[in-house]
Design a protein that fits this description.
With 498 residues, the chain is of the alpha+beta class. It has 4 domains: 129 residues, no CATH class; 112 residues, Beta-Lactamase, CATH 3.30.450.40; 70 residues, Helix Hairpins; 153 residues, Histidine kinase-like ATPase, C-terminal domain (Heat Shock Protein 90), CATH 3.30.565. It contains 13 helices and 12 strands. The strands form 3 sheets. Strands 2-1-5-4-3 form a 5-stranded antiparallel beta sheet, with helices on both faces. The chain has a 5-stranded mixed beta sheet with strand order 7-9-10-12-11. Strands 6-8 form a two-stranded antiparallel sheet. Strand 3 and strand 4 form a beta hairpin. Helix 2 runs parallel beside helix 4 and helix 4 packs antiparallel against helix 5. It is rod-shaped. The relative contact order is 0.05.
């Protein structure tokens, strides 16, 4: 309250001094016109009006009104008869005196209004120039560094604020341009940044200064991205909102750039992964082919004891197994999320089932396998290698998660306009809340992640392949126990018509 009184006192003193200046100007005109020039009332009246306009243009409305009153009294006293008297003999002079005062007052008001608008226009022009410079700076923000400090520093630089604070809505962290300023209320900054209904601009005058504290939301499309606090000279409401809009657009654009950068890195990683898998598969397959050829030649051309023959058979069998695994790796290298490369041709599901079963013979060992493929199943338009890989992933999953002595069943049949296949095991089944999660990449079941080895990619690969064939893969718990993985593929149109 004391600071406010002092400001009012200083403002009143300034107006008083300017008013005295206006009265002094009238006194000078009166002395020159009365004592030196002996001018008539008409000329003096125009001189007084000019003086009032000068005061109004230079200082303001209050000072010009005081000058108008002083000019009216001087005109009456020195130039309207009776001279040197405040009385007026001719009633027409009253009309002239009143017209002079109204003209002076109106001219003062119009001049002051024009002056005020000119000052506002100049201030808006400066603000627009500052906003333009700020927009250029915000376009050059480095997205590899933290955005908050850069944003606050750019606004402080171009608008001359004492301090700028930015509160990130996502993290609640407050960044300052320079050192932390205790004049900011952090609770207010965080409240504006984290409340969806915050749209207002908070203004607070600092005591004993002409500075004010402004807190405004940074929002885009009704979504709050943060809040901005500033301490400095008063700024128009439109300028504050424009700064907030520029900051919001900059943050959104930067976040999109960061997201696109991450997507590009992920794409390049997937591409590099495919290249590495292809290279590793090729480098492994070459020596394995030599080993296989050598073992086959030794077994066929030389005699061996029964025990030696068993050892060589194991080597040949394991070489075949490694070759199959490498072929699977090569196929997996062609799988990219959302961009599976397949080569479609007319295929029979019974051939795919037979090939897949032959591939997993080595890991089945003596486990019972029940295969039921119905007769007369329509062909499907598919990539048999990729479809076989999907089926082998389902069979491998069944082998992992079921007891060693339990039976694994695989069946295929015609289901209307689709071909359906199912792989069923006698394991613990799938918890209902994980029936979708198990198809996500790298996800492993809560009950078995500690006891069964794996990467959590098999089922994801299988679903990706089935989706690429415009089919559907899902899982159910069988009534007899265990899990049943089923998929459907559209039957080939030509085969279906025949």
């Amino acid at each position: 309250m004391h600071a406010t009184s002092r400001r009012i006192l200083r403002l009143g003193l300034r107006i008083l001094l300017r008013s005295v200046g206006g009265v002094a100007l009238v006194a000078v005109i009166t002395w020159a016109a009365f004592s030196v020039l002996h001018a008539n009332p008409l000329i003096v009246g125009f001189a007084y009006v000019l003086a009032v306009l000068i005061v109004a243009a230079r200082w303001g409305l209050t000072e010009s009104l005081v000058t108008s009153v002083a000019a009216m009294l001087c005109l009456n006293y020195f130039f309207l008869p009776p001279i040197l008297s405040l009385t007026i003999a001719d009633p027409q002079n009253w009309v002239a005196l009143f017209a002079f005062f109204v003209t002076s007052a109106t001219a003062s008001k119009l001049s002051a209004s024009v002056r005020h608008r000119a000052a506002e226009a100049q201030a808006r022009r400066v603000e627009v120039d500052q906003l333009y410079q700020l927009s250029l700076s915000l376009m050059l923000l480095d997205t590899t560094r933290e955005l908050g400090p850069q944003l606050a520093a750019a606004i402080k630089k171009h608008f001359g604020f004492d301090t700028i604070a930015f509160c990130d809505a996502a993290t609640g962290v407050i960044h300052f341009a320079g050192t932390e300023d205790p004049r900011f209320e952090k609770e207010v900054l965080r409240a504006v940044a984290t409340t969806d209904s915050s749209w207002f601009v908070s203004r607070k005058q600092l005591e004993r200064t002409t500075l004010e504290v402004v807190v405004a939301p940074i929002a885009l499309g009704g979504r709050i991205l943060g809040s901005l606090g500033a301490i400095g000279p008063p700024l128009s409401e439109s300028a504050v909102q424009a700064i907030g809009n520029l900051a919001a657009v900059t943050l959104e654009h930067a976040h999109q750039q960061i997201a696109l950068g991450r997507l590009e890195v992920a794409r390049q990683n997937e591409q590099l992964r495919s290249i590495l898998l292809d290279a590793v598969a090729h480098d492994f397959l070459t020596p394995l082919t030599s080993i296989k050829s050598a073992v086959t030649a030794v077994r066929s051309e030389y005699r061996h004891e029964a025990e030696e023959e068993d050892f060589l058979a194991v080597v040949e069998e394991e070489a075949d197994r490694l070759s199959e695994m490498i072929n699977d790796i090569t196929d997996m290298a062609r799988i990219e999320p959302g961009r599976l490369r397949i080569r479609l041709r007319e295929s029979r599901i019974e051939d795919v089932v037979r090939s897949s079963v032959d591939h997993v013979r080595t890991i089945l060992k003596h486990r019972p396998l029940e295969v039921k493929v119905a007769q007369g199943i329509a062909a499907v338009n598919a990539d048999p290698e990729m479809l076989g890989l999907a089926l082998r992933q389902l069979l491998g999953n069944a082998i992992k998660f079921s007891p060693p002595e339990s039976t694994i069943s695989i069946a295929a049949w015609q289901d209307g306009d689709a071909v359906r296949a199912a792989v069923r095991d006698q394991g613990p089944g799938i918890p209902r809340d994980e029936m979708e999660s198990i198809f996500e990449r790298y996800y492993r079941g809560k009950q078995t992640r500690e006891t069964v080895a794996g990467t959590g990619m098999g089922l994801s690969i299988a679903r990706e392949i089935i989706r690429a064939h415009h089919g559907r893969l899902w899982v159910d718990n069988a009534k007899e126990g265990g899990a049943e993985f089923s998929f459907t593929l559209p039957a080939s149109r030509e085969d279906h018509r025949s």
